[in-house]
Amino acid sequence: MVTEIMSGGIFGVECRPVRVETDVSNGLPMIEMVGRLSAEVKEASKRVRVALKNVDINLPPKRITINLAPADEQKEGTGYDLAIALSLLAGLSLIPPESLAGRFAAGELALDGRVCRINGILPMVLKAREMGIKTCILPRDNSEEARAVSGIEIIGVGNITEALNWMRGKKTQNSESEFKDLFKESEKINTYPDFADIHGQEGLKRAMMIAAAGFHNLLMIGPPGAGKTMAAKRLPGILPPITREESLEVSKIYSAAGLLDNAKPLVTLRPFVAPHHTASVYALSGGGRTPKPGLISRAHRGVLFLDEAVHFSSQTLEVLRQPMEDKEIRIDRATGSCIFPADFMLVAAINPCPCGNYPDPNLCRCGADQVRRYLSKLSGPLLDRIDICTEMSRLDVKDIRNNKKNDDSQCSSRMRQKVLEARSRQDERFKDLDIRFNSQMNPAYIEEFIPLGGNEAAFMDKAYEKMHLSLRSYHKILRVARTIADIDGKKDVELSCLQEALCYRSIEERYWT
Fold this sequence. Notes:
By secondary structure, the protein is of the alpha/beta class. It has 22 helices and 18 strands.
């Protein structure tokens, strides 16, 4: 008799369902595993045999064949152990074979019979629910993460004996199955520092607020010590709160990367990822023999901050171009292709030259060629994908002495309030569409939602010709102007909104032409 139970493995950030089939028959005593298995999956037979022995279950001298179907897909990881053990126990009639129907099992077995946590439980449970499975048997250390998914029963087990007793119909300790609304229960406390800590730099704060409201990419240029890094670390504190759907999207990525645990089973704040400039292409984009999400995907629905961006390798910077446009990364391997989500806000900070004091002729020690080579590390196509470019200057001493933190109109709480007001206007505008922010508008939406009057159209025509804008840049100016109008509470995009939006592009012209 063949017994079977469903399990799954992670490829990218998605679960590939696997059917674990077991046949126990007379013949030469052995355990044979088939189904295009990696080394760690083949070793599961030894882990299962010893784990069962150590809970006083000795396998009889039978020929045992275990197939992981579909057989044409590569199986990797240690998460199949629990499913193999349960299928084998059913084949030996130690648990009712019919108890495996409609069940999903995943977990690694230790040699003493413990069921150990694995990565990627959240995508697995979501896939199991999609397949119509009613019950998941998982490691207890993964149970809180799994219970974030509604509409499916979760059984958390600490060892193989608990799983065996539950399959026999016995209630086991700590095998609660209720759904927990972790998103609602989470405190979602804003732990980010306050913009009021930054002295002066009102123009930067304004640019940050616009970027946060419309989810626009941002580039900061300024001398060392002007507050670029400080401002970037405070940006997530004024972003619109993450929604339940976005939280689940991000949590899937972090689950596949092994960055969730029972103490924090769901991501309830927008991510802020700040890689070091030595990060490789694969660290950013993800990949590997079994593709895993990189830093770009971990910034999904949040902020990817590149401090001293020109010190990243050119190859690393150029890998950003495609995900900034398509909002996803496609990884192709011989075992298949996977798509990582990559809808992030890029925030980059650079000095204007190697010494950091350009264009001040009294302080800058760099020649024109040095400045040109330094800035050219950011390519034209990459700059074309950045919506807002803002310049910072060295602080005056009066800005340092006269900073009034408590009375500052540009503190995080007030900035966040303006962002939320602009966000509500976007919610109303896009309520029947598949986009949420102004930065996501395609040309058809731009034509529909950003009608220009006669003066505004003439202004943009002149800017397009004089500044030699690309079509992408032209549309980005319109999107930023729409966000500025939302921040200022204006129904239509007025000339002043277009002028301010164009200023954020003219800084780019000043440094790169």
